[in-house]
Amino acid sequence: MNRKLGLALALAISCGANATAGALSPVEQRIVAEIKAHSPQAIALLEQSAKINSGTMNHEGVRAVGALFRQQFDQLGFKTEWIDMPPEMQRAGHLVATREGKQGKRLLLLGHLDTVFERDAKSPLWERQGERARGQGVSDMKGGDVAVIEALRALKQVGALENTTISVMFTGDEEEAGNPKSISRRDMVELAKRSDIALGFEGAVTRDGQAMGTVGRRATASFELDVKGHQAHSAGVFGSAGYGAVYEAARILDTFRREVVEPGLTYNPGVILGGTEVAYDDANSRGSAFGKTNVIANTATVKGDLRYLDYAQRDRTQARMREIVAQSLPGASAAITFHDSYPPMAVTPGNLKVLEQYSQASQDAGLGVVGSLPAEARGAGDIQFVAPYVDSLDGLGASGSGAHSPNEEVELASIERAAIRTAILIYRLTR
């Protein structure tokens, strides 16, 4: 984040923290009352959706959750459709619900139907534990999906959806986006281009009791090192036979660690294979290596993850990495390649404005100030594909813990809070 945006954010949060909570309008009070009155049914909907396994590769399960939520949007008067992906992509598809009007801002609401828990996962589908519930995807992100539906339901009940333009897209492959992403995210980008603001409902984060919105996310990318050495008897290492591929790989990675350092930048060599024979299966993320201790390794492969704040940081990082790779040890050589995946969600004045409006809605509802989560504190998310085209805010979903683990759980009351904040924000944006 540059200094100007940083000061703007600090000012916005400071002003929000010191502001006196404004009163809700009579219509907004009715919206809140509708959400609170319907909270038991919201929890029942979450339970119903959680009891359907919808791991990304369980296409039948993803479609079943999509059908469940589609019924809700149909009842709210949205036009709904299921968008299938090409069979070769091996993804279930996406649910889209739309309505068109001429009043206020045009909104795009994003969620996802899939979870990381595939058919054979041992984690419980649903276990109610007092005011919390444990289950597959309850916070990431079926709780957020339910919050979207509940916010829109309350707006419908008070007549506030009339003449508004709202698009909702629940993807079926957020946890493992289908390739090519130009196809799997094509419809999302097209919706964004016809919208003014995008809101994402990934799980809400709290710090020291304060809710935090997401105005930026780092891009995700990958790098691959292909290292070659001179195969020879190990007695010649460090001398005429050179250093071999494994030492060269180690030199490169350690130099990265020491010299390629910037705030918000990370890179992780997740897999390394070296020896005289190396094979790696990209589709299944596993490989094998053969070698002997008395033979200098002639090949090494490194697969890594790269995360950056913006394209300028990406370009600087890649240039410096290439320079380091080119400084080969005797008897070795290497090449590095990069592959972009998710684009960055840059921190922009527009994003900060949406956060300010969301925080004000929260304060007016008596739910407190919403702060800003650093971009490096969140992983990749669908909203990154639309952020280049539209002002965006993410992290508006339910609060929980243990995401992507057998202990994933959701604070059930957070669904009501998320729905209230969202409904008031949507109401104000669409006036």
UniProtKB/TrEMBL annotation:
Pfam families with a match to the protein in the record: M20_dimer (PF07687), Peptidase_M20 (PF01546)
GO molecular function: hydrolase activity; metal ion binding
Coiled-coil regions listed in the entry: none
Gene3D superfamilies: 3.30.70.360, Zn peptidases (3.40.630.10)
Cofactor: Zn(2+)
Keywords, sorted A to Z: Hydrolase, Metal-binding, Signal, Zinc
Peptidase M20 dimerisation domain span: 215-330
Entry-linked SUPFAM superfamilies: Bacterial exopeptidase dimerisation domain, Zn-dependent exopeptidases
InterPro entries, per the entry: ArgE/DapE_CS, Bact_exopeptidase_dim_dom, Peptidase_M20, Peptidase_M20_dimer, Peptidase_M20A
Signal peptide range in chain numbering: 1-19
Record-given protein name: M20 family peptidase
Lineage: Bacteria, Pseudomonadati, Pseudomonadota, Betaproteobacteria, Burkholderiales
